[in-house]
Every structure is written in C-alpha cells, then in structure tokens.
Amino acid sequence: MHVIIGGCGRVGAQLAEQLARGGHDVVVIDADPEAFDRIGSAFNGETLIGSIINKDTLQRAGIDKADALAAVTDLDNANLMAVQIARELFDVDVTVARLFNPQREESYRKIGVTYVSGTRLVARAIMKQLDIDRFPPHVGFTEGEIDIVELVVTEKGHGMTVSEMQNRGDLRIAAVERDGRTRIPAGRDRLVHDDLLVAAIRGGRTGRRARGLLTSPATSRRV
User: Fold this and answer.
1) Residues 14 and 122 placed together within one structural domain of the fold
2) What is the reported pLDDT for 81?
3) Which residues have CB under 8 Å from 127's CB, separation 6+?
C-alpha cells in the first residue's frame, strides 16, 4: 500500500516506522524538517517538507496513487482539511484524522470523517482504522517471528484465567492493565472484560481458538 502520513510528531513517526516495517510504501509530510529526526534510522520510506493541506505537496507525495492518508498533526483544522482534500479531490479510499477537541466529534461524524481522538494508543487506533494490520505490533523483533502487542479482553474472554487464555491464544501474557493499574499476572488470575494485555504472539496473530476472546485496543476502547 502507498500511505501518506501528514505530521511527523510522536504518533506520525511511530506510524511511519510501523508501516514501513510492514513493507508498505510510506511518505511522511511535515513543515518542520527537524521533525523527521523522530523517525528511526531504519525507516526506508520518504520524507517530504511541506504542508499537508497543500495540493502540490500532496501530489509530490504521490496522492494520485495513495491507498490511504493519515493526518496526525497537532492542528485539528489541518487534519480535517487534509482528509477532505484527499477524499474529495483525489478519491483516496481510506482516510483518518487525529482529533484533539472532543467537542468537534459530532460534526466530524455528520460529515463522515473517520477520526481518532484522545491521547492513549493513538497510533494503534489509526493502524486499525487504516485496516492494515489486525494486531499491529508495538515491538517487532528483526530476527524471528515474535511480536509484542497490546490486546483487549472481550466479553467472551471475561472470566478466563491467564493460563486458559494463553493456551487458547498461543500467546504469553506479560502484563495486565486494569483500572489504571498495571501488574504482572499469575497463571491462575482471572481476566476481566476490557483488561488491556501486553503479550508476545507469533507473527502478529493469535491462535484460532482465541477468536472473539481478544481484540486490538482500537476496536474495543476509545483512545
């Protein structure tokens, strides 16, 4: 996929690295050339200095062939304009805007803009909205097939012990966050609906028997 990321703050840099690591063609746009310093040295995509609401800049970024655009600057107006330009002028199929002001959520919904609000796990949520990875890893090892991911317990998984979930999901749970507190669980501990798990899984996928028991944070909680 050819993906354009508007804004190279913490979230934009994280998205760029994850997408490029997944083999996607990534172009990151930012008006500040120093912002690109946030991207790791292993990034093999393209960086472009300019405004994400400038049509010429977007065309230089290859928006004519883009499959998706994520606007993640710290300005709501710029993010909104960027996704509208991408959708209405260039027919980009998938767009998502980061939203800081929750009072604007209703207006975004009315005009059909896909958005992610809040501050937690924003990159995970945007990856899910882009529908690129089912369980996008937040740590991927360069050698081997193990990813460290964040997963959420669904209603179907409520009440299962850690050991039962590990056996069903072919994963290893390293930490559980509940009610703002994080702990290392024992195998006999029971999981609760909406628990946030940090787990090691093979190749970004859980086992088939875990289907319905776990989901990515972007689909189960507002971030």
Assistant:
1) yes
2) 96
3) 15, 18, 19, 133, 136, 218
C-alpha 4: how far from chain center: 14
Report the CATH number that the domain containing residue 97 is assigned in CATH: 3.40.50.720
Domain count along the chain:
2
CA distance 177 to 196: 5
Instruction: Tell me the whole-structure pTM to 2 decimals.
Output: 0.59
201 is in which domain, residue-wise?
Answer: 139-220
Considering 113, 130, 147, which residue would you say is the last residue of a domain?
130
Q: Please identify every stretch of the chain with a pLDDT value under 50, giving residue numbers as ranges.
A: 133-138, 140, 142-143, 218-223
Examine the domain organization and report whether 144 and 124 are in the same domain: no
3-class SS string, the chain: CEEEEECCCHHHHHHHHHHHHCCCEEEEEECCHHHHHHCCCCCCCEEEECCCCCHHHHHHCCHHHCCEEEECCCCHHHHHHHHHHHHHHHCCCEEEEEECCHHHHHHHHHCCCCEEECCCCHHHHHHHHHCCCCCCCCEECCCCCEEEEEEEECCCCCCCEHHHHHHHHCEEEEEEEECCEEECCCCCCECCCCCEEEEEEECCECCHHHECCEECHHHHCCC
CA-based angle 118:71:105, to the nearest 5?
Answer: 45
Residues 159 and 189: their CA atoms lie apart, in Å, by 9
The tokens describing 96, both together, are 């998502």
Last residue of a domain, one of 130, 163, 182: 130
